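Q: What residues go here?
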């Protein structure tokens, strides 16, 4: 079989998007959206991939296939199993900027280039003092981007709309702040700084899709079905959400909404991030430790377990949603989507992998909902309090994986000592001691299932 390549009549799209990140996530999320925009809305958006790290084999695989790759989407949609494969055709090439820095900088000369996308991991957006801008390879991603923007500025060309997708709070603001600091350190001058601030639009974003990447177990079988070799097949779930905090006038320049994509432009991304953390991440942390104590191994098994499912469902809809400040219908729809995603039969998400660092996760994901529920309704939320008891019981066993000091303390401390430890929770939770102790004793005396049944009712 031959490699996947363009046919003679298949010309690359005009390069309008520079994407720092060639990995599975952006190819299964942003580039999929761009490909649909081209095919369903007559768009002409070509994407140039730029590697955040040097890895010659990656750009070779992508460039050998002229940017083409198959994306396999699989999951549940309205309760039905859905599988969809498409060839994504918007990528034009991939650049290893450490080996071909000039090729990257030449992109600054392109007057059609309008958008910059990035996903360089949470650690990618960082500023390091003492950098004088003399080495492209030795600076950070924001430092390299500052150099690229300076090239653009020197050419007298317009700025960009930037969509950082790194999973940090206010990623656009953070990226802009790093660039402005580097502009000073590199001695690029006041006019360049004004250009960065006035001619470029940095958005804050929230991205949400599980992208499972290259299907090692059945890639060979898939290629035989395709009739060609694809070395960079990507796989992802059906669900997708991209929330963009920015001036909505820019949405018309890349109109994802015109084809029904779940892309939301907003004045404030904060409530949507809060919704994701409290419902999606919070449901994971609320449920997984109790499910593991019940002997289950994966999220899928938990969703097929009537008791565990009922417990999680009650926690989300009766305790978490009532304290969130988005419209109730939006919250309910998002929660139903989350549950459907958890039930995805194509993804085996192990409970123990989610259970990693559960103390800090509970503090961020579930404790705020618990406290806000008590403030709002004057009583304890049963499922959230029970999940805290399940956490304590889980850490007394041998499967917890956390900071060594945390595990040692949790394994031997009393319930009262754990709840009073402000280093763990940032506040004294002793007011929960009576209820949590009761639940822990019930779990130890009668087992997790019998104890949970009393909470579910």
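A:
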């Amino acid at each position: 079989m031959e490699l996947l390549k363009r046919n003679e009549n298949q010309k690359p799209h005009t390069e309008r998007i520079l994407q720092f990140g060639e990995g599975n996530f952006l190819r299964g999320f942003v580039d999929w959206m761009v490909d649909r925009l081209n095919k369903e809305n007559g768009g002409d958006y070509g994407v140039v991939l730029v590697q955040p790290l040097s890895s010659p084999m990656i750009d070779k695989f992508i460039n050998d296939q002229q940017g083409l790759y198959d994306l396999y989407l699989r999951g549940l949609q309205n309760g039905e199993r859905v599988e969809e494969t498409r060839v994504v055709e918007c990528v034009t090439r991939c650049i290893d900027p450490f080996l071909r820095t000039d090729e990257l900088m030449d992109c600054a000369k392109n007057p059609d280039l309008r958008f910059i996308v990035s996903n360089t991991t949470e650690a990618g957006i960082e500023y390091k003092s003492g950098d004088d801008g003399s080495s492209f390879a030795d600076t950070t991603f924001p430092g390299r981007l500052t150099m690229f923007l300076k090239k653009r500025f020197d050419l007298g060309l317009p700025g960009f709309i930037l969509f950082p997708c790194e999973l940090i709070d206010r990623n656009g603001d953070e990226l802009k702040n790093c660039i402005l600091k580097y502009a000073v350190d590199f001695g690029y001058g006041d006019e360049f700084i004004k250009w960065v601030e006035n001619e470029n639009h940095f958005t804050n974003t929230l991205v949400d899709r599980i992208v499972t990447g290259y299907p090692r177990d059945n890639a060979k079988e898939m290629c035989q079905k395709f009739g060609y070799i694809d070395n960079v097949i990507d796989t992802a779930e059906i669900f997708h959400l991209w929330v963009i905090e920015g001036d909505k006038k820019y949405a018309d320049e890349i109109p994802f909404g015109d084809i029904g994509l779940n892309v939301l432009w907003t004045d404030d991304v904060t409530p949507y991030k809060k919704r994701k953390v409290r419902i999606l991440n919070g449901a994971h942390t609320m449920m997984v430790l109790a499910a593991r104590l019940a002997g289950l191994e994966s999220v899928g098994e938990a969703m097929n377990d009537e008791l565990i499912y009922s417990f999680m469902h009650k926690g989300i809809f009766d305790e978490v949603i009532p304290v969130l400040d988005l419209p109730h219908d939006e919250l309910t729809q998002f929660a139903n989507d989350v549950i459907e995603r958890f039930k995805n039969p194509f993804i085996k998400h192990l409970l123990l992998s989610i259970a990693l660092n559960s103390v800090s996760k509970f503090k961020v994901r579930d404790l705020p909902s618990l406290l806000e529920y008590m403030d709002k309704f004057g009583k304890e939320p049963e499922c959230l309090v029970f999940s805290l008891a399940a956490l304590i019981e889980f850490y007394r066993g041998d499967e917890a994986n956390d900071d060594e000091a945390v595990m040692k303390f949790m394994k031997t401390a009393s319930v009262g000592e754990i709840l009073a430890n402000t280093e763990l929770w940032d506040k004294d939770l002793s007011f929960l001691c009576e209820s949590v102790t009761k639940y822990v004793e019930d779990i130890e005396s009668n087992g997790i299932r019998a104890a949970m049944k009393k909470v579910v009712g």
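A: Context that may help when evaluating the design: The longest strand covers residues 69-77. The two ends are 59 Å apart (CA to CA).
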